[in-house]
Amino acid sequence: MAMLQMQRISIYALKKDRKPVLELLQRRGVLEISDSIAEDQVFQKMDVSQVRSSFERNINVAKEASQILSSYVSEQKSILSSFEGRKIISLDEYSNFNSKLDDTLRIANQIINCNKGIAEGRADILKLEAQIEMLKPWTNLDIPLNFEGTKQTKCFIGTFPKEYSLELLYQELAEYMPLNIDIISASKEQTCVFILVTNSLQEKVYEKLRSLEFSHPSVSVDKAPAEQLEKYSNRVSRIQEEILSLESKIEAFASNREDLLFLQDYERMRSDKYQVLGQISQSNNIFIITGYIPERETKALREELEHKFMLSVEIETPTEEEDIPVLLKNNPFSGAVESVVEGFALPAKGEIDPTAVVSCFYYVLFGIMLADAGYGIIMTVACGYILYKYRRTMEVNTKKFMSMFLYCGISTTFWGIMFGSYFGDVFDVIATTYFGVTNVPIIPPLWFFPVNDPMRMLAFSMILGLIHIITGYLIKVFQLYQQKDYIGIFYDAVSWILLIISCTILLMSLDMIKNILGLTLVIPSSIKMLSGIIAILSALIIILTNGRESRNPFKRFLKGAYALYGITGILSDVLSYSRLLALGLASGIIGNVINKMAAMPAKSFGFVGVIIFIIILLFGHTLNIAINALGAYVHTNRLQYVEFFGKFYSGGGRSFNPFTMKTKYYKVKENVNNG
Fold first, then answer.
1. Residue 542: CA atoms inside 13 Å, Cβ hemisphere, count?
2. Residue intervals in the chain for CATH 3.30.70.2750
3. What is the pTM of this model?
4. CB atoms inside a 10 Å sphere around CB 250
5. 287 in the Ramachandran plot: left (φ > 0), alpha (ψ -120 to 50) or beta?
6. Quick one: which of 494, 599, 23, 642 has its CA closest to 305?
7. Pick from 217, 478, 226: which is nearest to 350 by CA?
8. Fold category of 146-216 in CATH
9. What is the C-alpha separation between 665 and 23, in angstroms, rounded?
């Protein structure tokens, strides 16, 4: 249980050293910078908004170019590549990138422009293809669609929304003779026609045509449709060639992928650096940096700064009133579940880091919920392999997460052995199905089968829940002791512990509870009497003291009585641990069902049955471990957050946010060979 002690640091340096000092602090990543110094006539703060905007533009350009490049030239990655972490580069590579910055930006813009040209070309092709489709019905027409007639005649070129024969059209227009009708094309959807009439009849003919729902072509060209179609087709071919050329140009930039990715990180680091420049106070000659730093880092940072630059460093202990950031530090076993604690909240002032206690219960509870040695071995081996393979490059948070599941896998294996579950009862099913063995189980449990004795499992779950809850109150005792609230220790913690223990003993002495849980425990009458007295005294203490901040005796009594009512909440909390039974049984029973399903076709289909058996086992148990491991993870977190933290922990601390290289693809190290 450790939170690193923080110190307040102030750095006074010459303005000419501003850039190298900030870059050094950014590489070290141990200092959270604050802007606590107010501006005055001497010390001012820079306006860096425009500079940071230019960095953000460059980041967006590089990001867009990278995405475009990936869509044309996919990067080959292994299934486990997400565990590799960021690529490590040296400080020299980082420093030398400035000479490639402009060229990389130019390449990024070229990729974007090529992609824009491709998009525009494809849009043009869609338009041309639409026009081609509209012209296809008119290919037999040897005059332009915009032809209107001669001096003596009027031409109507257009369509009817249904199929007409030449005879039917002449019948419809018989009263307006003489005229000429040609059907260019006809289908069920439309009839394309060419109609030529004298000028004297054009208005009457047009009115008749409108009554037949005649409409002019939606496309108007000054060439014959066949000629125009050829022109459009040639233009589509040219655009397609241009698109292929642009795609080839984009693909040729595949070798610049790493530069485009690093450009994003490079500009992001510069943007963060300028953000800090906007926070610190500066005069004409000096600048001041203030913030918080872990105490263990102060000596090394001070020595390095004073050795490389002409400056002054002051280290002070923060006051109680300051909003000090929180940074957790635990051993590898407990530190693996720091994300669980942080997911709820970081410790507030006066609270301890509960990570060490959480880790012990977390692994136990997870293991009981999954409780299958086969599943546990798979989790342990898989996580162990990944942790070993990527031990040098894996990100810290990913490493903690995988370590957590490694320990959960070990716990799952242990409880699986205790409860005799190995991929459910797969060994028993194999022995019975293929070898005719009837003496099962093949591998008996070291303790008992929860499926055969669920009430014993329920009793064990509730006892473990009581231990978990009482541990929470014991941590509260420790916290109140650190705060020197000795009265609160007895009134707010010890009284509840005594009440819970005494009530538990009284409940365990009831025949009804014994019968439900299948217990044979005999509690002496003297113990029962003592427990009853302690329960009454504890209840009275809670009633009389939980409202002690109120001066009104009646309000004090009501608050105390309401606080005592919280014993029902504790009972509910204890019952919540029955989920250990529920999830443990679910994992085992589903595994058994999968095994029996796999065994059904085994004898009927001979060798094929063996293959079906293996396939069902692989698919079924893969699905079972995925679903129940997720369920165990979720419900273990819930037991920590609700039943455990609710007894002593509220959180509310502020996370330590150091000025560091917040990169996505690369890590910069001064000595790559030393890791």
1. 22
2. 146-216
3. 0.86
4. 20
5. beta
6. 23
7. 478
8. Alpha-Beta Plaits (3.30.70)
9. 19
